[in-house]
Design brief:
The complex is a heterotrimer, with 1 copy of chain A and 2 copies of chain B.
Chain A: H1 13-23, H2 33-49, H3 56-73, H4 89-109, H5 141-152, H6 164-183, E1 185-187, H7 188-192, H8 198-213, E2 217-221, E3 228-232
Antiparallel strand pairs in A: 1-3, 2-3
Helix pairs in contact in A: 1-4, 2-3, 6-8
Chain B: H1 4-14, H2 21-28, H3 33-50, E1 54-59, E2 62-67, H4 72-79, H5 88-100, E3 103-104, H6 105-112, H7 117-125, E4 129-134, E5 142-146, H8 148-153
Helix pairs in contact in B: 1-3, 5-7
Classes of the chains: A mainly alpha, B alpha+beta.
Chain lengths: ~240, ~170, ~170
């Protein structure tokens, strides 16, 4: 049996199903579902007997196939013939979509890949350090969170999650700091802004309380009903 | 400016990543973009005509010298390393990310019919894919897209240069 | 061997260090040293004649492409605007500041297990982090947080877009 060796090269249940369809020269738009289900289950059996790690997704598709098969066995009700949906339709759509991407992946692989087919120059002049404003290399947040994960891997779990509320507060604090750096002082009402939503008002208020507690800002009021002015407290 | 072609040639030569016209302009000062572009296209033609061991290509929004396609085997011999290869799983995941970006992981899982965690993480580590933001739906799942390095490695000027996806045929009833 | 000049050209081009004739021979196989030497001298003359941005020189017992001496100033200008890269230390410190803000230096020291003075100072200079206040405890230590520039560099709309560690773990299955 030629196909045993091929079992572990399937990229997933859809890949296996496509292989069975091609191998048996089946029209993908009219899949004989009973036949293909039998073939599919047969392959799963072989995979099991070879002790291959059978991912849950393979079993999920098996149950989908069996479900479609049972639906197709039901007699078609004449009264509904107008809108009768083929129970295979969704599966076929999924197979075609997957097939498209599988082909696309093969085409991508055929391109002239850097460091595989083509190479750039090895010229590496001495590193010179220069001062001044420089742009940053493209860096992704993935690297940031990965760096964080590495250093906190020894710390307890609960320390690891970021808290959306705390982050919103930090955002608002940062915005206020940004504005204060430019405008020196801002009135309380300015900060709250006009027509902003409740959420912004609440976080602004919380941010100001937090910033006062942390002595990041100072608030002054000329008289008891006067305008409240906010200043930076930190000597930056 | 005299010698503009030679200057640009040397700049592209020493740059680690594809050099953009904007960057060249930043260095040369008051030179029109058009003049720079013309000089580069002149150079490209020259290299092509000479059948040199390397050529000037437009990639990832900039320009870079690269060895000729058909000489890869010789260079592999010099480098002494096995050529970098992508697993089919990585390539399929990358294809979905490239064509469907910005895309959430659940959608890639659905299209490929498997859990793509492993291959997606590999792509993030190789800097071919990156997190680009969050989708504005409950749970705010992460969205993924491709990087500039993806363009560089796959020899693409920009994303619009990706060959069009074979259209999904409409299902006939 | 046909194309020997182009092959040698591409080998010298990709080599990190000056490429020796012996090495070239090792790669090409049965080719006479004399033939290689001739091809290289041919190439050297070609580059000289073209007044190209770089030339082929004999150096340290081998051959290498080098930019023309008189273009040094331009190259210097390019290298001067080379984008900044993050060292692993800077990245780790920045990660702690981002995820733990507002945070005191002692806490960053504790989490990273080293004195972060240097990398923290670097981040402040690069305007990725800043002092945001003082903690209300004895000694009133300085508190640090991220900046708007941090969001720009990492392509984030706001801090709540930062990926969580749980999301990263999900990729590790």
């Amino acid at each position: 049996m030629g196909y045993e060796v091929k079992l572990d090269i399937f990229e997933g249940p859809l890949d296996l199903l496509l292989y069975l369809i091609k191998k048996n020269e089946i029209n993908i738009y009219d899949i004989p579902i009973a036949f293909i289900t039998e073939q599919y289950l047969g392959h799963l059996e072989i995979m099991k007997s070879l002790n291959l790690d059978l991912a849950g997704e393979y079993l999920l598709l098996a149950s989908t196939l069996i479900h479609i098969k049972s639906k197709m066995l039901l007699p078609v009700q004449e009264s509904e013939e107008e809108d009768e949906i083929d129970p295979r339709e969704e599966l076929v759509r999924q197979l075609l979509e997957y097939q498209t991407f599988k082909e696309t992946a093969l085409n991508l692989d055929k391109r002239s890949l850097l460091e595989r087919d083509v190479f750039k120059g090895g010229y590496s002049p001495d590193e010179e350090l220069d001062q001044g404003e420089k742009p940053f290399v493209e860096v992704s947040v993935f690297e940031l969170v990965e760096a964080f994960r590495k250093i906190v891997s020894t710390v307890e779990e609960e320390l690891l999650e970021i808290n959306a509320e705390k982050m919103s507060l930090a955002d608002r604090i940062n915005e206020i700091m940004e504005r204060l750096a430019e405008e020196k002082d801002i009135t309380f009402t300015d900060l709250l802004g006009r027509g902003t939503n409740r959420r912004v008002v609440i976080y602004t208020f919380l941010a100001i309380l937090e910033m006062m507690k942390l002595r990041m800002i100072r608030a002054y009021q000329a008289d008891s009903f006067g305008v409240i002015r906010i200043f930076l407290a930190v000597e930056t | 400016m005299k010698d503009i072609k030679a200057i640009i040639e040397s700049l592209v030569f020493v740059s680690d990543s594809p050099l953009t016209i904007d960057k060249i302009r930043e260095i040369l000062g008051e030179v029109e973009r058009e003049e720079i572009r013309e000089a580069i296209y002149d150079l490209m033609k020259e290299y092509e005509g000479r059948k040199s061991g390397f050529c000037l290509v437009e990639v990832a929004g900039g320009f870079q010298f690269r060895t000729r396609d058909d000489l890869g085997d010789w260079i592999q011999k010099l480098k002494g390393v096995k050529p970098m290869a992508f697993s089919p799983a990585a390539m399929e995941t990358l294809a979905v990310v490239a064509y469907r970006q910005p895309v959430v992981k659940a959608e890639i899982d659905r299209i490929r019919g498997v859990d793509v965690s492993g291959s997606l993480k590999g792509l993030l580590e190789k800097k071919l894919a990156r997190m680009v933001g969050r989708k504005d739906v409950p749970g705010r799942p992460m969205l993924y897209g491709t990087t500039k390095k993806f363009l560089e490695v796959f020899n693409l000027k920009d994303l619009s240069e990706l060959p069009t996806l074979r259209e999904l045929k409409e299902l006939e009833k």
